Amino acid sequence: MRVTADDVAKAAGVSRAMVSRAFTPGASVAVRKREHVLRVAKALGYRPNLIARGLTGQRTGLVAVVAGEISRPYEAWLLEHLVRVLSTNGYQPLLLPAFRDANMTEMIDHALAYQVDGAIVAAGSVSRDIADRCQASGAPLVLIGRVLEKNGADAVCCDNIKGMWQLVERLVKQGRQRIAWLGGTADTFSDQERSQGVEEALAHYGLSLQAQRRGNFSLSSGVSEGLALLDSRLSLDAIICANDAMALGVVEAAAQRGIRVPDDVAITGFDDVPGAAWGRCPLTTVRNPVNETALEALRLLETRVQDPTCDNQVIRVGVTLVPRSSG
Amino acid sequence: MRVTADDVAKAAGVSRAMVSRAFTPGASVAVRKREHVLRVAKALGYRPNLIARGLTGQRTGLVAVVAGEISRPYEAWLLEHLVRVLSTNGYQPLLLPAFRDANMTEMIDHALAYQVDGAIVAAGSVSRDIADRCQASGAPLVLIGRVLEKNGADAVCCDNIKGMWQLVERLVKQGRQRIAWLGGTADTFSDQERSQGVEEALAHYGLSLQAQRRGNFSLSSGVSEGLALLDSRLSLDAIICANDAMALGVVEAAAQRGIRVPDDVAITGFDDVPGAAWGRCPLTTVRNPVNETALEALRLLETRVQDPTCDNQVIRVGVTLVPRSSG
DNA sequence: TGAAATTTTGCACGCGCGTTCAAAAATCCC
DNA sequence: GGGATTTTTGAACGCGCGTGCAAAATTTCA
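Above: the input entities. Below: the structure tokens describing the complete assembly.
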């Protein structure tokens, strides 16, 4: 049924080793013979069995990708870039969904059992355990959007703090002073750094937050928390949100209350996901360079494959302010 | 470095075959001995190498998943369910992104070389070629959201036509008569069936489309095409869109023109993606049951693995009208 | 207690491939 | 043209695992 290198060898009248060599770029094979073998192989529909190849060799070409809730815009956007970068560089992404109630330990072990060349983890939580397991099994690990305490793993992460400084600077220069913060899920690195950035920047301008609330990075939580903020009697003139989805929710909340954006209140997001520019009020936000992030993640992975003992690196990719009409 | 079954055997004082049996559920092994082996294995951090296992056995546990543009809400939503279903059933999804300019032929061949147990294709286009390649290599194939002409592959697809009938029925009963159609990318199966459903249903009520335009399933195309429809002097009272994203775009367009929804014009979507219920105007739409779709896709795959020669099946999953405030 | 029936175990093989090593073929130089 | 050197080739091995088969160990029954 399945055509193996032996079949090709027989059909081409050479030894099996010959076939293997014909498919190995650097191997020393007579040009004529290689062509002949490749022709026969193609005619028979032969392709080297990557599973068998992975058994002997050091590489399988498989990379585990741990993604958060894919149906969220940012995760999907990042995943798209990650998968594309891996794919076009000859890797095959093994997708592990980090959904709620998922047994991540079991899942990562399962992936590791496939002898993945490495793992890229883009899910906010449960990273510590995963890091340990990867390290124990010797699989290179790269974290995205999160750096581990005491430098426990390679990571690439955007400059959350700088991004928030830029946002705050813009708002302050617009004369806004009564600013509120809408944070995301509490145990995430993004929430921590972004909120820290906001507070630092405000302090620098002699200001402080008028209110703080917390959503879960979803649009719907943006709506409900946004309503709560707007309904309070704080006469806010700006709401800084931890991500775009919540900012869009707050825009919606403002519309429901007849509050003008950005005249009455400015609303800002973070990430600049596709879709932040659309909708009723194009979002002023900070661009999170996911493509560069994906590229750097792969680079870190390959660096560590080459030298598993090198020091952990943390790459900070740059962000840019994207001023639009919401603030 | 890596701990193999031999290491465990040595440490446990048994033969390697013993170790293998201890990890094989159905095998006949003394209970005491199995426990002993498993204990030693755990202590050593041993897990069977799934690559090696896949080499001999008929199954690898790998399933290729071809997804369209992941950053679009519907694709992401479907992918999330697919991956979750596969994952929780012991399969490992190999994600192939069908981005523009991707060499799908090369990518699918590459995945096939990993001896995947099957492929699930959820990307609108380029399915014919993929189907041929899968069949040639004997890998079961399941299409989602598309059925091939002359029944060329197993497929699961929602009942587009019925969904559109329900939508049209609702609009007509509201007294709407000047109805326009905003279609999606031309060569997609969804666009064809949905547009067919609208026309059939309208004809049944003695009506016909007042206008037709075509976007590309994206929100931005919904905005631009929506503006075009609304700016025409057709005094439309309903716009039926081929998916939710475009419908949201049309809602936005209506807002820009100060046209009230649904009082002046009704706007409907399709899929009921998360997010269709949020935003300025919760969408009247048709629920596309992605979870059931994912489940059925896996079922078809497993059915075909068991009997590769059985007739191709096309599962039509049911849809339900979701009336909200947009129409 | 001894032989027969029944587990339980270990040996050996093969999955499809890359790769080492020595033999064979081709090339070279004088 | 013959011997030395280089290139090309093919047989054999191992990667880590599952499994068929026969030997060994255990249990059963009289």
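Note for the figure: The mean pLDDT of chain A is 93.
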